[in-house]
Write a structure and sequence with these properties.
Blueprint lengths: L1 H15 L15 E6 L5 H12 L3 E3 L9 E16 L5 E15 L5 E13 L5 H41 L1
Parallel strand pairs: 1-2, 1-3
Antiparallel strand pairs: 3-4, 4-5
Helix pairs in contact: 2-3
Amino acid sequence: MLRIIILLLLTLNITSCGFNFQNKYQYNNIKTLQIISNKQINYFIKFLIEEIKLNNIKLINTNNDNKTPILKIINFYEDTQTLSIFQNGKAAEKQLSFIVKAELLMCNNKSYLLNIKIDRTFFDNPLEALAKDSEKDIILQEMQEQAAYKLIQNLLITYSSEFKKIKFNT
């Protein structure tokens, strides 16, 4: 009896604090997806395709049936802001941002904007220029990978909520 009460209190405590299991949107209803991007294939697009395949979504080149959702990559870019400077006026700490703007076009002609922004701080040591550049490249790749993950998660959430609305209305 005590175990049941403890289990009940633990469950109530976890659910009341807003805890959500990661990947709870794995029940996605997306079977196929078309990606449209006018950008050249790079690390972000590769990470995005990898993330799509990890979620068991088939990529198609052309949309003939108008039932396949379309993920249109509008733009993605890197941005840098100086957070602090050395006494000699050179940047000491920078904030790196990777921003993705995409649009999800649904089969019912609705579109949803998906905006992702990933931020990291980066210490800019002018005495170690080579190490600084390679470290910055690694950080940017990690940011692109995380942005692809977040974009697909937002896509799954948006699609599943819209899919429920469509199913409920029919």
